[in-house]
Design a protein that fits this description.
Elements (H helix, E strand, L loop, with lengths): L9 H12 L5 H7 L4 H14 L20 H14 L3 H8 L3 H10 L28 E9 L7 H4 L1 H10 L4 E2 L4 E2 L2 E9 L5 E6 L4 H16 L7 E4 L8 H9 L3 E4 L9 H15 L7 H17 L24
Parallel strand pairs: 1-6, 6-7
Antiparallel strand pairs: 1-4, 2-3, 4-5
Helix pairs in contact: 1-2, 1-3, 2-3, 4-5, 5-6
Length: 329
């Protein structure tokens, strides 16, 4: 594509070249006709004579050979330091005695100037996957949240008043100096394909509770036309229990586990937990734990039916369930 200040577009180049080559116009006269210099007109005429109409297209300004190109052995060292240690151009340049600008040019050429596709902890390439149909796999996990004392927690009312509210909230545990009001265990389930989410809040994360959540989640998805085939969980005690294994067999679901100490395998639900915390758990002030729990169903409806999800093209998750009852009526 021609730049903004180009005197001749590809079509005009063809016209001036044809006047010179095909019609025998002098180069200077053709240049005057198209308001360009005679060397420019001569260049396009020569290219037309050699290559025909295809020679009128723009060419890359990149040189055919670079005499001072960075040696391949040094490029491999730059890539190794970037890939394994996630160092920047300045740090890599200091280690290899190279200018930072040269290191940056090498990283751009190798497409490593940005590391959004590389895992920050391991340096391995992030392997993204998505099952083709809803229900082919669901992810399950538990998000732990401290219960909110009556009157509000320290995040909104400050530490002094927050500690006072925690100390005066009934049914607390712990010592007098360190009163604890308990933990809310949010059992979450998310469909791999659609990102449709289901969640329940309980007071524990035992196998019996996890199994009950799984049964109700499977029924909830079945009511929306989704048949669950696989379930992916971490290696928590509830998901390694015989009760979990037997329940999955009873429901005809294949139970799968993530690699130990590798939460990225279950990354979809880990990312959902962050959205859950930002959009519901800590989004606004709650005067009590019951107020926050009562707000969860409305937020889940907003997440599933209205909130655009960037991983599925900016559409809400429910839009990927194509067989909802009454959807086409």
């Amino acid at each position: 594509m021609s730049h903004a200040n180009a005197a001749l577009t590809p079509r005009q180049r063809l016209r001036v070249a044809r006047l010179i080559v095909d019609h025998g116009w002098p180069v200077t006269r053709a240049a005057e006709q198209f308001n360009c210099s005679w060397p420019t007109a001569k260049r396009w005429a020569a290219r037309y004579a050699a290559m025909g109409e295809a020679g009128m297209a723009d060419r890359s300004s990149r040189p055919h050979r670079v005499t001072n190109r960075t040696p391949q052995q040094l490029v491999r060292k730059v890539v190794h330091l970037r890939w394994k240690q996630r160092l920047g151009p300045v740090a890599i340049g200091a280690k290899l005695a190279m200018p930072a600008s040269t290191v940056h040019a090498v990283l751009v050429r190798c497409r490593l100037n940005r590391l959004h596709h590389v895992d920050k902890r391991t340096g391995e390439v992030i392997r993204r996957y998505e099952h083709e149909i809803p229900g082919a796999m669901i992810h399950v996990d538990v998000k732990k949240l401290g219960n909110i004392p009556n009157g509000g927690g320290w995040r909104y009312v400050g530490k002094q008043l927050g500690h006072r509210n925690r100390a005066t909230t009934p049914a607390r545990t712990g010592s007098r100096s360190h009163p604890v009001i308990g933990t809310a265990y949010v059992h979450t389930v998310i469909d791999d394909h659609s990102r449709v989410a289901y969640a329940e809040i309980h007071g524990d994360e035992t196998a019996a509770t996890a199994v009950g959540v799984l049964r109700r989640a499977v029924s909830w998805f079945a009511a929306r036309g989704v048949t669950v085939e696989r379930v992916l969980s971490d290696n928590g005690s509830a998901y390694k229990s015989h009760l979990w294994r037997d329940t999955c067999r009873e429901l005809d679901i294949k139970a799968k586990k993530t690699r130990p100490y590798r939460p990225q395998t279950n990354g979809k639900i880990e990312r959902f937990h962050r959205t859950l915390a930002d959009g519901w758990a800590f989004k606004r002030f709650y005067a009590s734990e019951s107020a926050r729990r009562n707000a969860l169903p409305a937020w889940l409806h907003h997440y599933n039916h209205h909130r655009p999800h960037t991983a599925i093209g900016g559409h809400p998750p429910i839009s990927r369930l194509t067989n909802l009852p009454g959807q086409y009526s």
